Amino acid sequence: MPNSSPPKVLYCPEETCYYKAIHKQKCCHCEGFTDWEYHNRSLGELSIKLNPKNYSFGEVINRGPDENLYKLRFNGRLLTFVPEKICDFRELVIVELRNNLIRDIGNISCFNTLDTLVLSGNYIREIKAHTFKYNRNLRILDLSYNMLATMSSDFLPPMALSFLILHHNYFRSYDVSNLGIMMNRPFCLIDISYNILTEETITNKQNLTFEETGPAGQGSINFQHNWISTFPGFVLEVFSFKKCQEASRLWDYKVDLRNNPIQCDCKLVPIMEMVQPLLSFADHIFHVYLNISCFYPPYLKGISIYSIIKTGNWEHMTCPLTLKDDCPRGCECKFKLSVNRVNFLSAEKIVFVNCTAAGLYKLPHKIPKGDKYYLFLSKNTISDISPRYYFRFTKILNLSENRLYKIDSTSVELMLKIEKIILTNNMGLVKIPENVKLLNPCRVKFPNVHFVCTCKNIWIKDWLMKSHSSNTGKKACNIDNFFCKTKTKVIRLVEFNADRLFCDREYDIYARDVLITSITLILSSIVALWTLSYFRFEIVILLRKRYFTCTYRSMSRRRHEYDVFISFDEQRVDIRKWVMKELIPMLQKEDYSFYVPTISLPIGEIRTEEIERVVLKCQNYIVVLSDEYFGEGTIWNFF
């Protein structure tokens, strides 16, 4: 939108605006005097004489002396149209036609000097796109208490317009694109209160954006008493803000959303986290702009957003998730946002999945998308902890009161970043994988685990004792939850003495493994040497036989193209079947090359010539005899 300055000249009341240095420009613009007010010039008073037979028509009359400028006031009558002859008085600066029966504004483009137009309390249903195109000096436009339901996005407000009053109409949708000229220069008030607008029906079809430079609007935009439920998302989306720095330009305006059914949920958290650090030095600003009361949820109804920010009590402000968002059936899912203070779009999504007593017998395969997870899966019948992709992003995992008996070792590798794992009241858990020692034992709450006292389980005691601190007297975590069974009794793991079982410690185990490996290699070498010595002649014979066989075959293949030529009566189905399924596979298994005319003869070759050539290059011949073999037409009759 172009950054245009209004053509009208206003006289600034210095005594009023002198102390408002920061907003002096707005003060001068909204409280300034027109030329006739500043110079105390009197305005000629016009009136309308209605036709008694038809109140649709009236005659504009001048009841006083001729003046340079005029005003027309005709309120509370039965006027249904703006009189056409009103254009005879082109010097009109004020027109008030309140509480009449006017349905159409008509053509008023003839008034270049018009400053104020008040048509409140009529029956106007539509404003055409170019109704005020030529009213360049129109500063105040009051269309309140009419029957307006929509306004075209092509509607061009007058260049000098500072007050646009549209409250108490029937607007169900509104496009803010037509406010671009006003909002990118100083203006005073845009009042769209007491309508039926929602965040979905307020649009920005022409992508109105705020000018990077130039004077800010510094005006008030009143959206009170509508049906807007989201904040600040409504403002950010409508005005195409992406970053907090851009949204800060809204402080040049006063966007009033009070008395709307504001939903105080997770979408409010980013603005709260952004604003809270700024309260210490800009408290008075935020107290004004965020004095918006919540309507939902019920426990926050009537509490202002400013109060919630100041107390920092927004832990329970969440948004629901459904089956469409991959929430497991029978579970309650919700999320909240934690803001990135540079860019709203990168806010962290924290997902809570509550599947307590949801009838699950295994871990959900899919849960709603998020950046962090808090999973509550207690009071189900889950039997094992299988690997799940979301373990990498989980902060709390509660699997208490299930039927766990197994923990997959792969799952443990995915759970290294979980801050708290609760496994209490799972009496079937008797074995845990050894890589559990990769976890901090104080981050896991185990049930009472019973196992047999063996050397294989001594690592559990060593792992748990790592959390014991002799300096602070801190007790080892979970040390009272592990028990082992001896032949005579059950003892606490802390009482288990590995020396009684002659168990090796880690350094002994390494030495033992090295010793066993060395002894195995030495024994294997001795056995191999004895075998070579005892069977040395047999080994030599086998090697020579294999060598001469391979050498002979290799030399033979240098002289011959095929090892064997196979000839048989191709008309006999039984013989052909035996050759294909028995003889040929046997030759292939022994690595012999062969030539069978039925399958080896190239397409397009003359059969007799090709067979004659191949027979000369075969080392051996296999002939399968039959009664019909020596009849006419067999290959041997050609030689």
UniProtKB/TrEMBL annotation:
<keyword id="KW-0472">Membrane</keyword>
<dbReference type="Pfam" id="PF01582">
    <property type="entry name" value="TIR"/>
</dbReference>
<dbReference type="InterPro" id="IPR032675">
    <property type="entry name" value="LRR_dom_sf"/>
</dbReference>
<feature type="transmembrane region" description="Helical">
    <location>
        <begin position="514"/>
        <end position="537"/>
    </location>
</feature>
<protein>
    <recommendedName>
        <fullName>TIR domain-containing protein</fullName>
    </recommendedName>
</protein>
<dbReference type="GO" id="GO:0038023">
    <property type="term" value="F:signaling receptor activity"/>
</dbReference>
<dbReference type="GO" id="GO:0002224">
    <property type="term" value="P:toll-like receptor signaling pathway"/>
</dbReference>
<keyword id="KW-0812">Transmembrane</keyword>
<dbReference type="InterPro" id="IPR000157">
    <property type="entry name" value="TIR_dom"/>
</dbReference>
<dbReference type="Pfam" id="PF13855">
    <property type="entry name" value="LRR_8"/>
</dbReference>
<dbReference type="InterPro" id="IPR001611">
    <property type="entry name" value="Leu-rich_rpt"/>
</dbReference>
<comment type="similarity">
    <text>Belongs to the Toll-like receptor family.</text>
</comment>
<dbReference type="InterPro" id="IPR035897">
    <property type="entry name" value="Toll_tir_struct_dom_sf"/>
</dbReference>
<keyword id="KW-0732">Signal</keyword>
<feature type="domain" description="TIR">
    <location>
        <begin position="560"/>
        <end position="639"/>
    </location>
</feature>
<dbReference type="GO" id="GO:0005886">
    <property type="term" value="C:plasma membrane"/>
</dbReference>
<keyword id="KW-1133">Transmembrane helix</keyword>
